Amino acid sequence: MPLATTAEVQNEFALFLEQNLNKELLRFTTAGSVDDGKSTLIGRLLHDSKTVYEDQLASVKKSRINRSSGPIDFSLITDGLRAEREQGITIDVGYRYFATAKRKFIIADTPGHEQYTRNMATGASTADLAVILIDGTKGLLPQTLRHTYISSLLGISSVVAAINKKFLHLEKEFRALAERLGIREVQCIPLSALAGDNVVERSQNMPWYGGPALLEYVETVSITKPESTLGVRFPIQYVVRPDAHFRGFAGQIASGVIRPGDVVTALPSGQQSRVASIVTYDGQLAEAFAPLSVTLKLEDEIDLSRGDMLVATEKPPQVSQRFRASVVWMHAQPLEIGRPFLIKHCARQVRGKITKISHRVNMDTLETETAGQLEMNDIAVVDFETSSPLFFDSYQENRITGSFIVIDPLTNAKKISPQAPTF
Ligand SMILES: Nc1nc2c(ncn2[C@@H]2O[C@H](COP(=O)(O)OP(=O)(O)OP(=O)(O)O)[C@@H](O)[C@H]2O)c(=O)[nH]1
Ligand SMILES: [Mg+2]
């Protein structure tokens, strides 16, 4: 066979890149209790779909650590840190990218250990779907409830309950939980992460299960989100001023469509202007929409700097110094009412404090209860007051403008706080 010319190779490569760029992206996270097989499942998924690099696989095969009963400990494919391998647990979120003919994926493999709940919440905060592992020999554990709750709190509307090791009849129980939390799409898949049953291929060992294997499901599940009705939200990250002739505002569009000529309002000043042009590295655009990063030039010289926001004049966000939000408390030091914090919302950072704990959610029962303070990993609804206003939407409407981080100014410890409706 004649060798391909350089031009042919380049063409083929360009075609390959183009096909990959146009493939739909699904971001999913693992969740569940410690040791129920999350990392093993992701390792198995990558291995059986032939998306692990050979050198990576060779290093896993060579590892003197192997807690599985087979020749390869698949959990080592995602558990890369020395402390993770030594202890046989996941600590940090491990991100893996892979693609099949149908879709491309970013997987966040998160820890099940309660101590690292914040890392699970980080992985879930950008995911479209959660694969919640359930150890069939143990059933639904408090951590299964906690992670399913956090997944729903962080706006994940689609979950797979992957029932591992031994299939108990847990489907009914899990569906009842998901329904209670308002999770729309639920698929229960009995599988074996260790042996690979129902991971990439449907297994002959479970003939009573007629549904899809995990890969088949994540390749085909619908991820179209309901059309957002929010107007433009453009948090200013940076003012670009290379010389006296150009003043542009750089940032990532959080929602809406921007076109030259559109009327926009700057917050907090309230001044109005029109978009003169949308500038990118590749030239000017006739329109731009979320999640593009662009630089906007305005028709007027108005007061606008980092942390401010350009918004649709017709459909502005809520503007307030007082709001109520759900909080995942992630610090060992309990939450104290009235202590000063920094609050980072989009590109804006303000001083703030908690004025009241409205209620805490009991993770065993999912009932609400009163609380005087919050301990690490508590999830609660809390009232905030800030030194200057924030411009926000509810988390259900927009994950970016509806979430913020609470930072301890002394230790720099951070907590995530999704959902910010006013009261
Ligand atoms: N029998 C059996 N054991 C399994 C299966 N899947 C995983 N295991 C074992 O369960 C143990 C824990 O697996 P991991 O994949 O590290 O569990 P994990 O959920 O990632 O744990 P954390 O990330 O620490 O929460 C390992 O010893 C695995 O070999 C399975 O399908 N069957
Ligand atoms: Mg793990």
What do you see in this structure?
This protein folds into three domains: 215 residues, Rossmann fold; 80 residues, Elongation Factor Tu (Ef-tu), domain 3 (Beta Barrel), CATH 2.40.30; 99 residues, Elongation Factor Tu (Ef-tu), domain 3, CATH 2.40.30. 19% of the residues lie in helices and 35% in strands. Strands 7, 8, 9, 11, 12, 13, 15 and 16 form an eight-stranded antiparallel β-sheet that branches. Strands 17, 18, 19, 20, 21, 22 and 23 form a seven-stranded antiparallel β-sheet that branches. A six-stranded mixed β-sheet has the order 2-3-1-4-5-6, with helices on both faces. It is globular and about 70 Å long. The chain starts with 5 loop residues before the first helix and ends in a 5-residue tail after the last strand. The mean pLDDT is 89. The structure holds guanosine-5'-triphosphate (GTP) and magnesium ion. Magnesium ion (MG) binds next to helix 2.
